[in-house]
Design a protein that fits this description.
The protein is an alpha+beta fold and 142 residues long. The chain has three helices and seven strands, in the order βααββββββα.
């Protein structure tokens, strides 16, 4: 198994980070403008990308306001299916948030894994930029 593990300090309240991960408008601000996103456990988030013939479908396994968002991939490219994505959000004593990101369960380290690792690093930086500036910076627009 291979796992992606990242963390970043974001100059935004944990509640704002949570909203950026659990709402359609929030996700459109940093990842993809074409998405169906919810913060309701058991529902399916759908993320669409240009030229992809399908959506990436994530079942929401945990949604704890201001502290945790967890998805399980049930649809999308085969290397993603069965993987888990977890966003842990912690308030920092001096203000802002620490965001710990894990995407776990890949079969191994291959070309796809390396591309996804770099992609998530870019997306986490966009999440920070969006939350700190208030200006949308989606990577994928439709």
């Amino acid at each position: 198994m291979a796992d992606i593990a990242l963390q970043i300090d974001i100059g935004a309240d944990p509640a704002d980070v949570y909203t950026a991960l659990t709402t359609t408008d929030g996700v459109a601000g940093w990842w993809t403008t074409r998405n169906e996103t919810s913060g309701t456990v058991g529902e399916i988030n759908r993320y669409y990308f240009p030229d992809a013939p399908f959506s990436w479908d994530m079942r929401i396994d945990a949604a704890e306001p201001g502290s945790l968002v967890s998805w399980h991939c049930i649809g999308g490219p085969p290397p993603w299916i069965g993987t888990d994505i977890r966003w842990m959000i912690r308030a920092k004593p001096e203000g802002g948030s620490l965001v710990v990101f894990d995407h776990t369960g890949f079969a191994g380290i291959d070309e796809t894994f390396r591309i996804v690792t770099l992609g998530w690093a870019e997306m986490v930086l966009r999440l920070r930029d969006y939350l700190e500036s208030g200006k949308p910076v989606p990577y994928f627009t439709h």
